[in-house]
Design goal:
It is an enzyme of class 2 (transferase). Homodimer. This protein is 24% helix and 33% strand. A six-stranded mixed β-sheet has the order 1-10-9-8-4-5, with helices on both faces. The protein has a two-stranded antiparallel sheet with strand order 2-3. Strand 2 and strand 3 form a beta hairpin.
Length: 215
Amino acid sequence: MGEEASCDAVSLTEAGTNAKPVGKEVGREPAAAPAAAADPRLQGISDAIRVVPHFPKQGIMFNDITTLLLRPRVFKDAVDLFVERYRGMGIDAVAGIEARGFVFGPAIALAIGAKFIPLRKPRKLPGEVISEKYVLEYGTDCLEMRVGAIERSGERVLVIDDLVATGGTLCAAIRLLERAGADVVECACVIGLPKFKDLYKLNGKPVYVLVESRE
């Protein structure tokens, strides 16, 4: 939330009042709307996301997925939409970004027969780790991954988080995984900011979002 991009995407400010259905990839050439765009499950997901004004600080409209998690059917719909997209794509691992990527990532990984890799904040993982710093609006942050999580070069990895705003965190995750030899196939998020949908791919990787947050 509120991060500055450190990749080939334009920096944006966190915004939005409600979410609306999207079901599309970010940064792809204009094309016919995918079948998922008309999926009625997307509206239910959009409606279940609460927006909290001025949290965690003044001027930010926080997209809260905890209200979605309180609705088991809608939560399952969100997971199912990702599973339907990525099943059969030969994904070896799903990498979830702390903390809300941990909510969706393991369920998706289990359903598509992939392993789950937690990308954590500093000093959360025991043993040897590799780290990747990235720039936030006010300061820096860091993601860490356990050494050995990528077991062979070229493993196909999906990166999952709840929201993409400027893309800085996702870019750090991509760099971290690629340093370990992974092939990052795509990034997936439940929510995307509307201005973001027409920007470039993150470090050359497409971003898929289910619903769009309205400004």
